[in-house]
Amino acid sequence: MAFRGSKLSNSNMFRRVYLDNSATTQVDPHVVEAMLPYLTENYGNASSIHYFGQQARSAVDKSRHQVAQLLNSRPNEVIFTSGGTESNNLAIRGLCFANQHYGKHIIISDIEHPAVDAVCEDLEKDGFETTRLPVYGNGIVRVDDLENALRDDTLLISVMAANNEIGTLQPIEEIGKLVRELRKNGRKIWFHTDAVQAAGKTVVDVEAIGCDLLSISGHKIHAPKGIGALYVRRGTRLRSQNIGGRQERAIRAGTESVPNIVALGTAAEIASNDIAIVDSDIRILRDSLEQQILEHVPESHTNGDTDLRLPNISNISFPGVEGEALLINLDMHGIAVSTGSACSSGSIEPSPVIKALGVSDTAARSAIRFSLGRFTRADDVSRVLEVLPSAVENIRPLPKKKTARRFRRAASLPPRVLE
């Protein structure tokens, strides 16, 4: 394997490598095969009572069971949505507006996805208050901080299962246990977790977690974009955010997107069956990539806890390098990575997640996220390791000692005469 200063062969120059699976994933061919009939001959509306409609309804019901299997929930606790953002909005806004007579205080972490953070910020216009818990240098919430943040009017806790930028796993089972204890003592309080990144990469069991609401998104687990689901524990009251129909238990009105629902169900079944193998294989590739980057790129270091994290994400800072410049350089070599959440792409601000770890704006701007997926191959990792070290070296400014030497040399020259 070639490292610093290696030359690119013509055969490798434009081979594309995709390491941005936390932004979106390639649709699995088996998923495409499963959904195609519902784009062609099986085109009925799942709300119709005739033959075509009942074919569609049967497919939707099967998919609901498949998603429930992935989450260890009851099928009737699964609500189909358009994706993670809608699931988070429905969970938080729906819960808060349906139960605000019990309180108007929300607790979230400092590294929530904008689909949670921005919703809570918007709810503040309606008199809700939000407490954001710190995550310290390891990127993980402390349950003690959560307990200290609780108030008599705390209505909802929303802490993500795994972070989308650094992959850190949050103590959601401990939080679920705390919420259950509070409810035993008569408190009206609910727990939501954004599991968009966690589902399909690690075991997500709603009974073990003890959550009331849980969000997932299809395009993170090799289904198409535009489909997701919200787990809603039985007895949890939500105010519908879509009005105009009785679909999805009257919680989410709108004609069901049967092809996408079938795709999500198929993807969920594949993820459920293969999760242990995928975890092992991806983790080996991720660890190999990370280890060799740290070894061959001076001063590089990981962000967040390196043990309590998803198996497919490695977030690495390259001090002295502007992350956007490195991303563009790698893209010119056919390598796709990210500087943070895809929902924040185009922003010139440093990543709030990396900043929450206690680093400076400059350090936060030097971070790159490498996120692997089911279709990542060993030669993809080799290609990155072939290109990255020299790319970093070329972008980094000259070492201080060389710069100082230039200044000394310039100072020894005769002064320039001003005209």
Please tell me about this protein's structure.
There is one protein chain. 40% of the residues lie in helices and 12% in strands. With 419 residues, it is of the alpha/beta class. Strands 2-8-7-6-5-3-4 form a seven-stranded mixed sheet, sandwiched between helices. The chain has a three-stranded antiparallel sheet with strand order 9-10-12. Strands 1-11 form a two-stranded parallel ribbon. α2 (29-35) runs antiparallel to α9 (258-296), α4 (84-99) packs parallel to α5 and α10 (323-332) crosses α13 (378-395).
Record keyword descriptors for this entry.
single chain, 419 residues, alpha/beta, 7-stranded mixed beta sheet, 3-stranded antiparallel beta sheet, 12 strands, 12% strand, globular, disordered N terminus, disordered C terminus
Topology:
Elements: H1 10-13, E1 17-18, H2 29-35, H3 51-71, E2 78-81, H4 84-99, E3 105-109, H5 114-123, E4 129-133, H6 143-149, E5 154-158, H7 172-184, E6 190-194, H8 206-209, E7 213-217, E8 228-232, H9 258-296, E9 301-302, E10 313-317, H10 323-332, E11 335-336, H11 352-355, H12 361-364, E12 367-371, H13 378-395, H14 400-411
